[in-house]
């Protein structure tokens, strides 16, 4: 195993890749009682078009199939994987994003047994026509439940405005119509293409002995047969269509809501430089919109924004964007102010230059705090998105950030980006 020592954090990450292609990352955390393991495939809601393993023609799948597959993986012919985790005292879960699907558990005992359960249930698919039909009903109810959630509706509307007519504009769970098209054969096609070990990584963090854990994983994997690793051919993701600048919605909300998105069109660098870009973009938003920024204080004191105001930066495989949202009775003033801040980002940054070191220290402190969370440490790992760079690399990268880096990302991301706005007003009866 390769040992990567982070002397600034007194941490050592153990890495290796098994002959079947499965990437292993082991991070011992002496003193913790719990261990957390997450098995992730580089496959998410965005991956609707691809060439199935062993075939030559591109196929397109119904929206929501990655999330549907995640649900179905737990159910087997004669048992449910959740029950097995429960027998060994572990808490299990799973989630699907636009670019990844992860299966995880946490436990304070029986680590070997729970690792076997995790690897076995993810590597032993069972789909039938009847179980797919049953799941269509379950997920259909989930979709309807989210349709009643205003914040989710606003977020989805903002994605549709930023990425019109593209896979990113689909709800991760799909629609009732799209999931009704899913069949057991489709699930097997997706599984065989994207769930090969060479497209997956396993991250284990906690009070572990890395050599012992690797031996357990190798024993599990050596007892199984896998086809040879093969490159995955994904369909091209078209991201060139311009954003929809303004969208009005009427929903059952008490107060109006505004969501503004900045869609990046610039090229994000690969590897650690990409991770640094993501960190700098987040600091950029802190300087422009954080609670120490002069414009934030002015807007807060004027009653245009309140404690519901928030912002975030998202970077995944093939896309990146920022979201800014809040509840306000002054929707026009909110939109005008945020657009002005974004359109004059460099001038506003110059006014906030004195806050740069404070924002940087806060970012480092937040990262160090996350390192005390096993869940955050494992879930922040994005595999090959940043060439294996992870949360442990972030402190050193943040320390290297200069104010010039902030100005450069403002130029690239906001300067070349496009802004979409969604305004939600209370529905009148």
TrEMBL record:
InterPro entries: Metalloenz_LuxS/M16, MPP/UQCRC_Complex, Pept_M16_N, Peptidase_M16_C. Residues 63-175 form the Peptidase M16 N-terminal domain. GO terms for molecular function: metal ion binding. Pfam families: Peptidase_M16, Peptidase_M16_C. Residues 182-358 form the Peptidase M16 C-terminal domain. This is Insulinase family protein. It comes from Periweissella cryptocerci.
């Amino acid at each position: 195993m390769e040992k990567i020592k982070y002397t600034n954090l007194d941490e050592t990450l153990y890495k290796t890749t098994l002959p079947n292609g499965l990437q292993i990352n082991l991070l011992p955390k002496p003193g913790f009682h719990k261990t957390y393991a997450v098995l992730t495939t580089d496959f998410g809601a965005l991956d609707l078009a691809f060439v199935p393993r062993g075939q030559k023609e591109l196929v397109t799948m119904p929206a929501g199939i990655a999330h549907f597959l995640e649900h179905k993986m737990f159910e087997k012919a004669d048992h449910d994987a959740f029950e097995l985790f429960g027998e060994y005292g572990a808490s299990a879960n799973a989630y699907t994003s636009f670019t990844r699907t992860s299966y995880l558990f946490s436990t304070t005992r029986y680590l070997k047994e729970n690792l076997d359960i995790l690897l076995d249930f993810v590597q032993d698919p069972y789909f039938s026509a009847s179980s797919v039909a049953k799941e269509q009903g379950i997920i259909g109810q989930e979709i309807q439940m989210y349709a009643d959630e205003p914040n989710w509706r606003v977020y989805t509307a903002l994605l549709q405005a930023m990425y019109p007519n593209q896979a990113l504009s689909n709800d991760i769970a799909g629609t009732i119509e799209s999931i009704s098209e899913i069949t057991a054969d489709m699930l097997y096609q997706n599984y065989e293409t994207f769930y090969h070990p060479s497209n997956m990584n396993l991250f284990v963090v906690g009070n572990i002995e890395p050599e012992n854990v690797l031996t357990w994983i190798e024993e599990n994997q050596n007892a199984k047969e896998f086809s040879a690793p093969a490159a995955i051919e994904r369909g091209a993701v078209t991201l060139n269509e311009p954003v929809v600048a303004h969208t009005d919605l009427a929903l059952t909300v008490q107060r109006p809501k505004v969501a503004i998105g900045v869609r990046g069109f610039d090229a994000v660098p690969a590897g650690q430089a990409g991770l640094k870009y993501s960190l700098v973009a987040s600091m950029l938003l802190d300087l422009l919109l954080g609670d120490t920024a002069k414009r934030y204080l002015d807007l807060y004191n004027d009653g245009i924004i309140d404690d519901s105001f928030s912002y975030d930066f998202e970077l995944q495989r093939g896309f990146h964007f920022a979201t800014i949202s809040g509840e306000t009775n002054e929707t026009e003033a909110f939109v005008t102010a945020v657009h002005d801040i974004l359109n004059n980002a460099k001038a506003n940054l110059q006014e906030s230059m004195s806050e740069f070191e404070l924002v940087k220290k806060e970012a480092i402190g937040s990262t160090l705090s996350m390192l005390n969370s096993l869940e955050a440490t494992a879930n922040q790992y994005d595999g090959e998105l940043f060439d294996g760079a992870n949360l442990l690399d972030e402190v050193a990268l943040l320390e290297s950030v200069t104010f010039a880096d902030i100005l450069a990302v403002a130029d690239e991301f906001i300067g070349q980006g496009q802004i979409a706005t969604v305004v939600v007003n209370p529905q009148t009866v």
